[in-house]
Specification:
The protein is mainly alpha-helical and 413 residues long. The termini are far apart.
Length: 413
Amino acid sequence: MSNEENEERKDIDMDKKKFIKPDGGYGWVILFVAFSISFILDGCMYSFGIVLDEIKTHYNATQEVANLIPSLNTGFLFLSGPISAALAKQFGCRPVIVAGSLIFSLMYFISPYFPSIYFMKFSFGIVGGISFGCAYLTNFIILVDYFDKRLGLANGLTMSGSGLGNFAFAPLTEFLIGKFKWQSTMLILGSTIFLCAFLGCLLRPIEYYYKKVRQTEDIDDAIDSNEEPKKASFIVKNLFNEMTNFKILKLNTSFLLITLSNFLIFFVYFIPFIYIPIRAKALKIAQFAWLIGIIGIVNIPMRILFGIICDRKIIKPIHMNSLCIFVASGCMYTYFYLTTFYSQAVATALFGMAAAGINSLTTPYLVDIVGSEAFANANGILNMFRGLSCIFGPFIAGKIKKNFSKFLSQINF
């Protein structure tokens, strides 16, 4: 490689650092796609507790064994953080989201026909979780690429798709199970996830907007052609280096502390989504599925509101996150003592507001702590620690329920 080409490379890198993010334009298309993918994927995930009860009955499984399915799925969703970040850096966000959506929808298609629940743990729990993570987590990497001053709003709108999906898919899943068998319900939900692959095709890489990269395309092609024999080995090496890059934990104390905090939070975060409909059903509350729907509907405005507050810099995102954790914990401590639909609806609404902040504030406070350049790497590491805690939390809660025969312990857990 000549000195002239090296200088050109350096100019391109400098141009990327000075690049002003669109904060609109085609970014609104990116936002629409990110919102739609969050709507579908999170809607299916948060309503899975309704399907889980049918799966447990079908396979005659204990609660703790059945709980391993969503635990593994959610756990490997987050554990795939370093993988999805590395793949997105190497190949771009679009192919990672498309491939992840296709594989995840396939797991929905084949999992109901396995003869044992243990096969389902592998297909839907592990493979489905990793593909889910590649499709879902990469959404937020491309948002950070396109938005700066409006990042809070863009992230809030995307995260509101999760809330709307939660509200829409919970009663839809209940209706489908009542009308068809749970196996057919899984097929229908898998078909909606398949749509995410088509949506992912609309994700134009941010590199299209780097003017100097476009101007020096011929030079880039020449450089790439000289490196073609080593390309495969370079890809493998780069992927491995990116997936095992944890230096930021040593270099940034604030990021280390927030990572440990997230590990503890997500050890129990998804337990209410599993046990709220199960406990309401045990109390013979006819509208049990709507309790999850309520969490979804209050999520919608709250996630947008949190995003607007972040953009206007009224309160730091990390401080709002701490307040949300306090409110969510208080709701779960009181939930066991509520036995009517309306009292539980109020508790789940408050919990939903707090959960909205815990989820939607992650991107803004990570960008504040580590910056946009290190966001993909930091987000991957953070989600990996979330995944480790998510795998064991619901499983331990199931053990507690079996031993104590009450919902008090696992809700307060």
